Amino acid sequence: MWSVEELFGIDSLLSAEEREIRDTVARFGERRLRPHISEWFETGTFPAREIAPELGKLGLLGMHLEGYGCAGASATAYGLACQELEAIDSGVRSMVSVQGSLAMTAIWLFGSEEQKQQYLPRMAAGELIGCFGLTEPDFGSNPGGMRTRARRDGDDWVLNGSKMWITNGSVADVAVVWAYADEPGSDKPRVRGFVVPTNTPGFSAREIDRKLSLRASITAALDFDDVRLPADAVLPESRGLSSPLACLSEARFGIIFGALGAARDCLTTTIDYVRSREVFDKPLAAYQLTQAKLADMALELGKGQLLAIQLGRLKDRHEISNEQISAGKLNSTREAIAIARECRTLLGANGITLDYPVLRHANNLESVLTYEGTAEVHQLVLGKALTDANAFR
Ligand SMILES: Cc1cc2nc3c(=O)[nH]c(=O)nc-3n(C[C@H](O)[C@H](O)[C@H](O)COP(=O)(O)OP(=O)(O)OC[C@H]3O[C@@H](n4cnc5c(N)ncnc54)[C@H](O)[C@@H]3O)c2cc1C
């Protein structure tokens, strides 16, 4: 029997080191995470404190960053690690994305040398957990509308406002918070990033419960009530909305690979299932309708993997554009959720339980389709690239 990777000759496109990283992360996921994941999903928990140091030990936190205790791996290797983590659950990959691609990347790109020394090595080791606060209750796709404000009071900053849907928010030690900040010599505030220790008075986080998606991931609402920060809490190199958007591009890149990991897990589970499930006196696998579904899913998964590797290569050469990342994020998430749902049909009633991963993945992928730019937002990015006409407003 062929795997999708074999059908598309995927391994021939990867270096020995990339395959080794992929396989190491896959083994960790199967050993350490797979046995617990359905229980975490069912109870709506994720033991971030316990798992983060183990992810750190494997070099998966801030994996693509150089220096400060980070692994300095290639973009493609980072993508493959995301793929294997998301094959377990999108929640695990979200934790790693937010820590490495969002919170650590913000400090790495826009922080002072002191901020980098203070936070990055401990975040890379998983000793400190970070979160990234951009979205607000009323501003998700349009973060430029944000109402969170940082005003100057002497040398200090005073932060007021709120953030919503923040991954790791209620377990984080440190939050990177984006706010309109007073600009010297201007009456127009500008978006800037702030490094906020979560034990600062006035900072509060409330976990969002009753989620039907990404249940094995911590999501929180943050409130800032006169949070007083020292002058050096600002990320000095952050200037305008393009700064958080640069971090989002990094996280989106991981999703291009990650979502396909979830899809692959659905497909391999389903192939196993249909080979042993008998309907009308023969295995479900031997029906043409089943095979048509499997063939179509294998094609989309394989094409997605080829695109992901191509984008990985472009990123490794520092040649990738935001439009190309949008194309990959849109394709991977859309096809992954379609595969997860189609797999669920083949599992029949068994597919609706946590005994199999497919509906868990499908539900998770609803969030993955929405965060880091919704599918529609990426269609608009591509539409603008193709026509030069801006249809956002
Ligand atoms: C589980 C989870 C974790 C998250 N983690 C984080 C995090 O760690 N940090 C963080 O900052 N945010 C996080 N988010 C927030 C996420 O980034 C936002 O949900 C996302 O940007 C969409 O914003 P919204 O939910 O406000 O939807 P809206 O912006 O209100 O969009 C609603 C609908 O309108 C559509 N739409 C929007 N604009 C247009 C337009 N111009 N034209 C046509 N249609 C449009 C959208 O595509 C969507 O279908 C998380 C979200 C989830 C679900």
UniProtKB/TrEMBL annotation:
Its cofactor is FAD. Residues 239-386 form the Acyl-CoA dehydrogenase/oxidase C-terminal domain. The lineage of its organism: Bacteria, Bacillati, Actinomycetota, Actinomycetes, Mycobacteriales. It catalyses: a 2,3-saturated acyl-CoA + A = a 2,3-dehydroacyl-CoA + AH2. Residues 15-127 form the Acyl-CoA dehydrogenase/oxidase N-terminal domain. InterPro entries: Acyl-CoA_Oxase/DH_mid-dom, Acyl-CoA_Oxase/DH_mid-dom_sf, AcylCo_DH-like_C, AcylCo_DH/oxidase_C, AcylCoA_DH/ox_N, AcylCoA_DH/ox_N_sf, AcylCoA_DH/oxidase_NM_dom_sf, Glutaryl-CoA_DH_mitochondrial. Residues 131-227 form the Acyl-CoA oxidase/dehydrogenase middle domain. One of its GO terms (molecular function) is fatty-acyl-CoA binding. Belongs to the acyl-CoA dehydrogenase family. GO terms for biological process: fatty acid beta-oxidation using acyl-CoA dehydrogenase; fatty-acyl-CoA biosynthetic process. This is Glutaryl-CoA dehydrogenase. Keywords: FAD, Flavoprotein, Oxidoreductase, Transit peptide. It comes from the Bacteria.
